[in-house]
Amino acid sequence: MTELRDLLARTTEHALTYLDGASDRPVRRQVSAGELVAALGGPVPERPSDPAEVVDELARAVDPGLVVTNAGRYFGFVEGGVVPASLAADWLTSVWDQNPAFSALSPAATAAEEVCRGWLCELLSLPGTASAGFTSGAQLANLTGLAAGRHHVLRAAGWDVEADGLFGAPAVTVLAGQERHATVDRALRFLGFGTRSITPVPVDDQGRMRPDELERALGRGPAIVCAQAGNVNTGAADPLRRIGELTRAHDTWLHVDGAFGLWAAAVPELAHLTDGAELADSWAVDGHKWLNVPYDCGIVLCAHPDSHRAAMGLSAAYLARGGGRDGSDWSPESSRRARVFAVWAALRSLGRSGVAEMVRTCCAHARRCAELLASYEGITVLNDVVLNQVLIRVGDDDARTRAVAEAVQVEGATWLGTTTWRGSTAIRISVSDHATTHEHIDEAVRAVLRAARG
Fold first, then answer.
1. Does some domain include residue 134?
2. Cα gap 393→391, rounded to integer Å
3. What is the DSSP code (8-state) at residue 32?
4. Structural domain tally of the chain?
5. Are residues 7 and 62 in the same domain?
6. d(CA 331, CA 312)
7. Could you identify which of 257, 275, 340, 368 might form a hypothetical disulfide with 228, taking C-beta atoms 3.0 to 4.6 angstroms apart as the criterion?
8. Cα separation of 104 and 52, whole Å?
9. Which Gene3D superfamilies did the record assign (predicted)?
10. What pLDDT is attached to residue 242?
């Protein structure tokens, strides 16, 4: 035990060294994949090595390739930081090494999942009876919600898809906005629908699904509608109340991809963006985005627990049931990390007001960023900044916009990426980290201006 204590103390020093220097180091260093592979690689080791030396070697080899996403200066993809209690809980999660697939394996982890299920329903203003699964991210959360929907609509049509598969099943109409996230298409591929089975619904200039176009596309027979809260480019949410009314009138399953945007429901002055979300049948949301828990963490919630369990349930003679919640009934994963402990710690440490303040502050930073950049000639803000996403274009020129983004990335003081919006290149700035301050935003603006001025 003494050797293990010494090893963990040494590991703690590596972690603290990284955290202490995170605010000063480049967000992303210019290092090649080949250099990293060379530092980590070589022939497979022939003999055991001292664990302390292994940890030292790992910390040294990967350091140039680490991207600082949790120190307030990362604005590339929608990636949250890590709140302190959640980071500490995640360390304990590795020590405890619990598997929440069955309550017999970990009564503690499955109890924490049940508690967090209730807390999340309250925070997001969703039905308190909704079931929940804890997944690796919104990709599997979307897949799970859509699998529950597939089961539900085909069962209503007299078909058991879990027993009989899709060959010969009644056709299911799938409708999704033209600006849906790519993980929706991927989830539908995994579920056997294929991307050509998706009927794209036209959207407005902010990427929001148009209810009038959805109404025209809805017909008879089994159908699933995929809406979103939080367009990955603009942050806009589909008009969920009207969409929910339409899907209920047509007895159609409604799934909401709310990876980051659904967290707006926790903020009173932003809750109008997700108004009507409670009318949906399933929802996907990320913990590692706006709840700021460590990777990986997604959550699927479902208003129809029976359909959720039917789509995901796992059983075998040797799998003992402990009488409590069994996580494998609600997620595609069986053996998995007890990521819920980090969720519990984040929710317990922040509380309702803390979650709201984190989301509120990120949105205020995004508005500040947009206002500052829009005041300079040659920089155009392309979206209505309603949440945490800012789209800008430099000189109304694709090449120049890309060049500015690349120059900012190389400089390293901050990091932001590019996207394609309505056929043109844009710089996308996502503010999702509780550690971001006004000073970080001002430095990001200065970095863009330095690059734009050449």
1. yes
2. 7
3. -
4. 2
5. yes
6. 6
7. 257
8. 34
9. Aspartate Aminotransferase, domain 1, dopa decarboxylase, N-terminal domain, Type I PLP-dependent aspartate aminotransferase-like (Major domain)
10. 98
Same domain, yes or no: 238 and 291 = yes
pLDDT tens track for 251-310: 999 999 999 999 999 999 999 999 999 999 999 999 999 999 999 999 999 999 999 999
Residue 167's pLDDT is: 95
Decide: pTM greater than 0.90.
yes
> What is the CB neighbour count within 10 angstroms for residue 99?
17
> Beta-carbon neighbour count of residue 236 at 10 Å?
26
Question: What pLDDT score was predicted for residue 6?
Answer: 96
Which residues neighbour 337 within 8 Å (Cβ) at sequence distance 6 or greater?
93, 296
* Residue 272, CA distances (Å) to 23, 216, 263, 265, 283 in order: 35, 25, 12, 8, 17
pLDDT-flagged residues of the chain (< 50): none
Residue 165 phi, psi dihedral angles, 5° rounding: 70, -165
Range of the domain at 7: 2-68
Statement to judge: residues 214 and 259 lie in one domain:
yes
Residues 149, 196, single domain; the answer is: yes
37, 68, 99: which is the final residue of a domain?
A: 68
Q: What is the rounded end-to-end Cα distance, in angstroms, of the chain?
A: 58
HSE at residue 31, side-chain half, CA atoms within 13 A, is: 17
Do 50 and 113 fall within a single domain?
Answer: no
Beta-carbon contacts of residue 86 (< 8 Å; ≥ 6 apart): 291, 292, 293, 294, 342, 343, 345, 346, 349
φ, ψ of residue 284 to 5 degrees: the values are -120, 135
Give me the CATH number covering residue 228.
3.40.640.10
- 73 falls within a domain: no
Say if residue 110 is in the same domain as residue 229.
Answer: yes
Beta bridge partners of 224: 174, 253
Residues 174 and 198 sit within 8 Å (Cβ to Cβ): yes
pLDDT, tens only, 315-352: 776 666 667 789 999 999 999 999 999 999 999 999 99
Specify the 3-state DSSP secondary structure of 387.
Answer: coil
CA separation for the pair 172, 184 (Å, rounded): 16
SS3 234: coil
Nearest-angstrom CA–CA distance, 395 and 454: 13
H helical segments located in 97-210: 107-123, 138-156, 161-164, 182-190
Q: Could you say which of 346, 374, 392 is where a domain stops?
A: 346
Place of tokens 């996907």: 284
The pLDDT score that the predictor gives to residue 324 is 76
Tell me, yes or no, whether 64 and 102 share the same domain: no
Instruction: Tell whether 396 is covered by a domain.
Output: no
Residue 429, in any domain of the structure: no
